[in-house]
Amino acid sequence: MEVQHLLSGFCSTPMVQNPKTQFFARLPSSSSTASTYFGQSHKWVSFKACPCNSQRALSRIECRSSTERSGVIASSDSEDLGNGIRRKKLAVFVSGGGSNFRSIHEACIRGSIHGDIVVLVTNKQGCGGADYARDKGLPVVLFPKTKKEPDGISPIDLVAVLRGLEVDFVLLAGYLQLIPVELIQAYPRSIVNIHPSLLPAFGGKGNYGMRVHKAVIASGARYTGPTIHFVDEHYDTGRILAQRVVPVHANDTAEELAARVLREEHRLYVEVIAALCEERIFWREDGVPIIRSKENPNEYS
């Protein structure tokens, strides 16, 4: 049973009795095809029932809320840009409320990003980001397996799920777990993270969320801001892709600074993902990634 069949099975309109119902799909291991995608996993992937276009269920999942399209795509027949660049399939990883995830999803819907979120991965199945994903009809995968989340899947199975969904890019949006080497090897130069400071300052293990903003203020730094970087085997050490400067005011609280940085995070992440999906990321000979301007192809940042 291929991935699109698994997903489409949970979007059959006649089966929906309550649109708020949450389903859990056990990843099968009884067939060789299923094993190709999911290894031998018996863990759970959660879905929320939602009205869908069943006529194209095998080629495209079009779960909708009352006013929005979820953007889940299960095939490669999505529309291209004028230059022939196909829409990209995105996996987003979250651990908390997922405000950047929501911003990215909304940008996909309104067309600012030439791509669609096809799965949400989380290490906390009850977090706000996971609730939002289920509400929008997006599949939610629990990773990794821990004492608090014993139903999480393994790194190998995670790679298999993403491969089965034909994911092009992995986007970390407040995901507080170290990315396993198996995923980094499977998606070279295709995993990005956003950090709430100007890396390499105030990065590394344990530096996340409000801790970062408190440290910035305590240091006396006059400027901070979000950094988007490619992900390697360590915390916050991958190649920097984009940054946005935010001033630190003399009487800032950590909460005030966090809110100011977050507004820029939402703008910058959407801009960078748009560039990824439009294939405007280039690598200099020294290994530094740069972004080609959409308006002026001869300019880079």
Automatic annotation (TrEMBL):
Key words, A-Z: Chloroplast, Plastid, Purine biosynthesis, Transferase, Transit peptide
GO MF annotations in UniProt: phosphoribosylglycinamide formyltransferase activity
Main localization of the protein described in the UniProt heading: plastid
Pathway annotation: Purine metabolism; IMP biosynthesis via de novo pathway; N(2)-formyl-N(1)-(5-phospho-D-ribosyl)glycinamide from N(1)-(5-phospho-D-ribosyl)glycinamide (10-formyl THF route): step 1/1
EC number(s) per entry: 2.1.2.2
InterPro entries reported for this sequence: Formyl_transf_N, Formyl_transf_N_sf, GART, GART_AS
One Gene Ontology term from the biological process aspect of the record: 'de novo' IMP biosynthetic process
Location of the Formyl transferase N-terminal domain: 88-273
Subcellular localization, as worded in the UniProt entry: Plastid, Chloroplast
Catalytic activity: N(1)-(5-phospho-beta-D-ribosyl)glycinamide + (6R)-10-formyltetrahydrofolate = N(2)-formyl-N(1)-(5-phospho-beta-D-ribosyl)glycinamide + (6S)-5,6,7,8-tetrahydrofolate + H(+)
Entry GO CC: chloroplast
A Pfam family recorded for this sequence: Formyl_trans_N
Protein name as catalogued: Phosphoribosylglycinamide formyltransferase, chloroplastic
Lineage: Eukaryota, Viridiplantae, Streptophyta, Embryophyta, Tracheophyta
